[in-house]
Specification:
alpha/beta, Rossmann fold, Dehydroquinate synthase-like, alpha domain, 2 domains, two-stranded antiparallel sheet, 8 strands, globular, binds 5,6-dihydroxy-NADP
Length: 382
């Protein structure tokens, strides 16, 4: 096992009705004015908006609303939010929604306390030095952003979808009520399942060594995700299945999965972000296209772990059967597994390749991925 430091300061409050406590939580932290950020309106449809407003009013917390965050949040909307946060002198960000809303909230939290254009941090030209505290109520379990220090934003002009990673942007408190996810559209639920599995397997496959405890932990998460997703697709209001899925998605990207693994990187995410930035495709749908193709390309570099995956997850003896079974499962839940199925144009491979080459240094992967490698991977996903 490699040496490691584990740090995670986010307080998680999990369970039914916990969202009603948000006003009290802010008050206890001595916060008097927040930027209340949300998406295109699902929180109103599910009655969450009213509950949040009632709780904030009861606790005498002043709030400035900022809505309209879109899936794959964009830089221009983030910059407007930063302006508003500065103008209103808010003391904290309250993000209510899925990964996109929380990520944009994190970027606003960073931008609100600096004169820099926040994009310099996403380009990795400068390091984040500070941020406003962020509080989250999660409505879509997938990304793990509710308990990590990452945020992903797309610059819609350059079509670059980039991330920041900083200890300053862990949410202070995240409220996770599985009931709030009952209404997540089923296609997004499928993308969410792919995303969570992706977070667990990136280092599992690409690390040079993976301690047994980590392999077993990851396999438990994958099995939980597969089992609970099937139950959710049959009955979206299955509380236990929603709860298991939600907690699995948090654990998959809060730092625990990576522990003690030697090396490794987020190879699939790099390629998926190139696709997402170019074509505005949901993150999980980009991953379901990339993962089986990448597995076929990468398998020889870590054949033992690929065999283990086939055996432990699908009870199959060959690596190829393992990869095929995962691909079949992605298809079964409604996630695309090829570029054409996702409706991407015929020059997609050229365009994606160009972007991956450009962003690979940020992912510390330019030593592995040249143009030929990317083309070869994507040719498995035509
Ligand atoms: O716009 P609203 O009304 O919020 O609707 C959203 C959106 O249309 C809807 N939705 C969310 N909760 C709902 C709901 N609809 C009904 N009922 C509910 N309870 O679902 C749609 C998708 O939401 P979005 O937030 O975009 O999805 P997700 O949580 O998958 O977030 C995706 C973003 O997170 C990034 C992705 O790249 C993408 O930009 N990621 C962030 C990471 C991180 N910060 O650590 C890691 C991930 O790898 C990922 O890159
Ligand atoms: Zn992801």
């Amino acid at each position: 096992m490699e040496n490691f430091t584990f740090y995670n300061p986010t307080k998680i409050i999990f369970g039914k009705g916990e969202e009603n406590k948000i006003g009290e939580i802010l008050k206890k932290d001595n916060i008097k004015k927040v930027l209340f950020i949300y998406g295109k309106g699902s929180i109103k449809k599910i009655g969450l908006y009213d509950k949040v407003v009632e709780s904030l009013k009861k606790a005498n917390i002043e709030f400035i609303e900022y809505s309209g965050v879109r899936p794959n949040p964009i830089l221009s909307h983030t910059l407007e939010g930063i302006k508003l946060a500065k103008h209103e002198k808010v003391e904290a960000i309250l993000a209510v929604g899925g990964g996109s809303v929380i990520d944009e909230g994190k970027a606003i939290a960073v931008g609100a306390v600096t004169e820099e254009n926040v994009w310099v941090y996403f380009k990795h030209e400068k390091e984040v030095q500070a941020a406003l505290p962020l509080y989250a109520i999660l409505t879509l379990a997938a990304t793990g952003t509710e308990m990590n220090g990452n945020a992903v934003i797309t610059n819609e002009e350059t079509k670059e979808k980039l991330y920041i990673s900083s200890p300053f942007i862990y949410p202070k408190v995240s409220i996770l009520n599985p009931e709030l996810t009952f209404t997540v559209p089923l296609k997004y639920q499928a993308y969410a399942a792919v995303d969570v599995i992706a977070h667990t397997i990136e280092l599992y496959f690409s690390g040079e060594t993976c301690p047994k405890i980590q392999s077993r932990f990851i396999e438990a998460l994958i099995k939980t995700v597969m089992e609970s997703t099937q139950k959710i697709l049959e009955n979206p209001q299955d509380y236990e299945a929603r709860a298991e899925f939600m907690w699995a998605s948090t654990l998959a990207l809060n730092g625990l999965v990576q522990i003690g693994i030697k090396g490794g990187a987020f190879h699939n995410h790099m390629i998926a972000h190139a696709i997402g930035g170019l074509y505005d495709l949901p993150h999980g749908a980009c991953l379901s296209i990339v993962i089986p193709a990448w597995m076929n390309w990468f398998k020889q570099k870590n054949i033992k772990q690929f065999e283990r995956f086939a055996q432990k997850i699908f009870n199959k003896s060959s690596v190829e059967e393992g990869i095929e079974s995962l691909k079949t499962w992605f298809k079964k839940i409604g996630a695309p597994v090829s570029l054409s199925e996702a409706g991407l144009p015929s020059n997609a491979i050229d365009e994606i390749t160009k972007i991956v080459i450009k962003i690979a240094p940020i992912w510390n992967l330019s030593h592995i991925y040249n143009e030929d490698a990317i083309r070869e991977i994507l040719s498995f996903a035509k």
